[in-house]
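Researcher: Predict the fold of peptidylprolyl isomerase.
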Amino acid sequence: MLAKQASQAVVRRGSAGCRAVRVRCSAARPADAARATRRATLHQGALLAASLAAWPASAAGLPQQEQKQLCDAACVSDLESKELVTTASGLQYRDAIVGTGPQAQVGYQVVVHYVASLPNGRIFENSLERGQPFDVRVGTGQVVAGLDEALTTMRVGGLRRVYVPGPLSFPKPLKAAAGRPSVPANSAVVFDVKLLYIPGLDADDE
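Model: Structure tokens for peptidylprolyl isomerase follow.
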């Protein structure tokens, strides 16, 4: 009886079209869910994009060879011998260093250094040059989907090169700044990321 009354109340609150053709109203719900998903995807990219835009562009304006790197020439050469992992989402990564500390898990606040570049190697953001690491809550959409996914399988002390495909990258373009290239929407990007520590967790904690 209660379910029937609730159903009638929903119909009364709907439009005339809903009262006349109740099935069509229900059919519209998947479209609403799809729009909500798109909004969430745009939001997660916008959060990191806003953070990048707020950082000074002076470091990115340095010549490429003068910028600090997480993975130097020797590291890059060594990466070729490391296993290339491909996940179900299309994300790929290679571990330059496999961490031995606590593992990042969804919901954990973690602190990382990262260098973000285009596939051609042009850097568009570098936390090392900023002199301040980046903290992020894992798996909550605070960074682009590809980086978020990569963090969930890292351990403290790890250094990973993450190859983010377009669908898991920035849903909106990042504008160019002085010495910093633009990043087209849904374009592949590369992150070198080092997981420094997880606040509140000691090395022996799991």
